[in-house]
Specification:
It is a single chain. The protein is 27% helix and 20% strand. The protein is built from 8 helices and 10 strands. Helix 1 runs parallel beside helix 6 (200-221) and helix 5 (177-186) packs across helix 6 (200-221).
């Protein structure tokens, strides 16, 4: 799933390619992708894109007509930019194409989604806060005012394990499964540690790891074309998705804990005092 760094990079890429251009056609291919119907998705046609913003993992294209085309790429969605879109409308079918946006220049982008779980979502609203997922977002961890004190206040009283707390979009916006693994590895902290049990020193260390990990990921992705972001993301991850490989810090073998619909990766030496965590498959811990 694209997380804050990838969506931030997409925001920058789209700002360079969309702002100042007119949307001439919006073509939904998979009707299930549309989550709002008033205004219709075609209402943005004839409008000029004036800004591209990010809200957590949501992309927001703002137009001069006062409308916002808001997208959440979900687990298997992606945005594919094309300097020249194919002639003629796309054909509905079983392929990954969900929606196409065309500009007056002939360029544009496709929203695609792999797999059978269709969760990619597109909204057309007058205010991004009309999107339920945006309205419930917690603070952005890269915001200037997201300091250690605010972070400690968010974690106070949290009885969940820290891995689950970091992934909660209503607590902190934009961090998902991959970067929570990376942040906890950088902080040398067990993913099973209770959030409310953190000492002031652990809170400071985790806040620093959170900001540094996300900032560095954003910088690695900045300026990359949309098609190169996935490869850059994978190459920059130290533990997530690297089960069985050596930890780049200590050389221990990276371990995995599997759940019903996801998994986490960690280094025992760096994070759990050398003790492997129990792999409670089908656990509902992180739901």
């Amino acid at each position: 799933m694209p997380e804050l760094p990838e969506v931030e990079a997409l925001k920058g890429f789209l700002a360079d390619h969309l702002v100042g251009h007119e949307v001439v056609r919006v073509l939904p291919v998979a009707i299930s992708v549309l989550k709002t119907y008033d205004p219709p998705v075609t209402a943005v046609e004839g409008q000029e894109v004036t800004a591209v913003r990010r809200h957590g993992k949501f992309l927001d294209l703002e137009t001069d007509g006062g409308l916002h085309l808001v997208t959440h790429l979900a687990r298997a969605g992606w945005l594919q930019w094309k300097d020249r879109l194919p002639d003629g409308p796309p054909r509905p079918g079983k392929g990954p194409l969900a929606l196409r946006v065309a500009l007056e220049t002939g360029a544009g982008f496709d929203l695609t989604e792999a797999g059978t779980q269709k969760r990619l979502a597109v909204y057309v609203v007058r205010d991004p806060q009309e999107v339920p997922g945006v309205a419930r977002l917690g603070p952005d961890p890269l915001a200037d005012d997201f300091d250690e004190t605010r972070f400690a206040q968010l974690l106070a009283g949290e009885r969940r394990r820290i891995k689950g707390a970091l992934r909660d979009q209503s607590l902190i916006a934009g961090v998902g499964n991959a970067y929570s693994d990376e942040i906890l590895h950088a902080a040398k902290m067990s993913p099973f540690k209770l959030a409310a049990s953190l000492s002031p020193e652990e809170t400071r260390r985790l806040h620093e790891a959170l900001r540094t990990t996300l900032t560095e990921a954003v910088e690695r992705s900045r300026g990359l074309a949309a098609g190169r972001l996935k490869a850059e993301t994978k190459s920059g991850l130290r533990v997530h998705g690297r089960t069985g490989e050596p930890c780049p810090v200590c050389g221990d073998t990276i371990r995995e804990v599997s759940f019903s619909d996801s998994s986490l990766q960690y280094c025992p030496t760096c994070q759990t005092g050398g003790k492997p965590l129990a792999d409670r498959r089908l656990s509902r811990l992180l739901k």
